[in-house]
TrEMBL record:
Belongs to the ABC transporter superfamily. This is ATP-binding cassette domain-containing protein. GO terms for biological process: L-amino acid transport. It holds the Pfam family ABC_tran. One of its GO terms (molecular function) is ATP hydrolysis activity. It comes from the Bacteria. CDD domains: ABC_TM1139_LivF_branched (cd03224). The keyword Zinc does not apply. It comes from Nocardioides flavescens.
Length: 218
């Protein structure tokens, strides 16, 4: 499980979008195993086993939970029942509300649905763009625990996250992005305890999170 943190404007979300073919890469390469996937279209990447959950607009609000999940398996309709059962096991709260409109869900439930929809295609890599953004502390913890659970099923999770400390606590590997460059890297534990990272980033990032919570509250 990989966590990418950094100050606002560092290019974290742009990095994920570039990896998923939504932003053109002008230099460097992206590899999935031994395959060069640089600048492939998003639909092709989905077929190759890459899932992406954007920060916003990540569900179809007018559709039910179950209909949203069906949309996630448009390339493999024959496996619909099998994949639905797998998602109900992983997200039992969604199963209980499967007939409810996605537009009526809480922020945490929407994030669960967005992750489940991306997992319907059985990706080997799941890209998450700030999954805890706008959630209460309790819902943030639930989201982090769920991403760890997804990772334990064998899916490589690459997560951009504003809650830097919590992200580093659960990630095996971490990267600090600053002005589009890899400023620091190491295990999550190493970065969380690195005096320089703490001094330059963790305090600032915590302030960013607090400000974001304040904006959400209004």
């Amino acid at each position: 499980m990989i966590g990418i943190i950094g100050p606002n404007g560092a290019g974290k979300s742009t990095l994920l979008k570039a990896m998923f073919g939504l932003v053109k890469i002008r230099s460097g390469n992206v590899h999935l195993g031994d395959r060069d996937i640089t600048n492939l279209r998003a639909n092709r990447l989905v077929e190759m086993g890459v899932g992406f959950v954007p920060q916003t607009n990540n569900v179809f609000p007018s559709l039910t939970i179950e209909e949203n999940l069906q949309m996630g398996l448009f390339l493999r309709p024959a496996k619909l029942r099998e994949r639905l059962d797998a998602m109900w096991d992983l997200f039992p709260n969604l199963h209980e509300r499967r007939s409810r409109s996605a537009g009526a869900l809480s922020g945490g439930e929407r994030q669960s649905l967005a992750m489940a929809r991306a997992l319907m295609m059985e990706p080997s890599v799941l890209l998450l763009d700030e999954p805890s953004a706008g959630l209460s502390p309790v819902r943030q913890d639930e989201t982090f625990l769920r991403t760890r659970k997804i990772n334990k099923t064998g899916v490589c999770v690459v997560m951009v996250e504003q809650n830097a400390r919590r992200c580093l606590q659960i990630c095996d590997r971490g990267y600090v992005l600053d002005q589009g460059r890899d400023a620091y890297s190491g295990t999550g534990r190493e970065l969380a305890n690195d005096p320089k990272v703490i001094e330059l980033y963790l305090g600032t990032l915590a302030q960013d999170v607090d400000e974001a919570k304040g904006d959400t509250a209004h």
